[in-house]
């Protein structure tokens, strides 16, 4: 969800207010895709590298995450959305971890859209933690070296219960993955739009899906 601050800059608004606008965009999109019957939506909200931003911005974002999760939980639950988080959640502020645990528990039986929010997420961090988990299993004698295959590695990732993404949409025009779902994106279709995240309407999402629908996926064939 890239481009919030540029969106605010372009309008002469305080930069951080762009994040607030980005929340509105996300709410509209979640409603839209849930109604359309999408099974999984994963959004990149805060990377493990975003801690390098100013204290002011990090504090602002943490407060915003806590507020959005608590304010939106009832409506998400009513709309049959299952809310989950991927990333090193243990490294998030303790109050947020509590809100997240409440949200996960409250929505765990919902069978509609599965919505994952990536927070303190980085693919390299995820893979390093997976390797540690496998090494611990190895040391404990639970697995042998020859057991280490793609399936075992995938089972140690934050996304262990999720299918790989079919389509990855990046707003804000940058032609890179920025440490997002590197393992999982092996065969994902990529769609980059120059639109800044707050301008990414449900109609723009539909445009991305329409293009995705005519892509030829060859899976190495
Ligand atoms: C939102 O957009 C991404 C977050 C980390 C919350 P940015 O904050 O990266 O906005 P730009 O790219 O500077 O415009
Ligand atoms: Mg950015």
Describe the protein's architecture and organization:
- This protein is α/β, with parallel strands linked by helices.
- The chain folds into 3 domains: 1-38 and 164-215, Decaprenyl diphosphate synthase-like (Undecaprenyl pyrophosphate synthetase, 3-Layer(aba) Sandwich); 52-121, no CATH class; 122-162, no CATH class.
- The chain has 7 helices and 5 strands; from the N terminus they run H-H-E-H-E-H-E-H-H-E-E-H.
- It has helices spanning 4-10, 17-36, 55-78, 94-107, 123-139, 150-154, 202-213, and strands spanning 40-47, 82-86, 114-121, 167-170, 189-192.
- The strands form 2 sheets. It has a 3-stranded parallel beta sheet, sandwiched between helices. It has a two-stranded parallel ribbon with strand order 4-5.
- Helix 4 (94-107) links the parallel strand 2 and strand 3.
- The chain is globular and about 60 Å long.
- The model has no long low-confidence stretch (mean pLDDT 98).
Give the CATH architecture of the largest domain: 3-Layer(aba) Sandwich
When the domains are counted, the total is 3
Strand percent estimate: 5-15%
Looking at the structure, the CATH topology of the largest domain is Undecaprenyl pyrophosphate synthetase
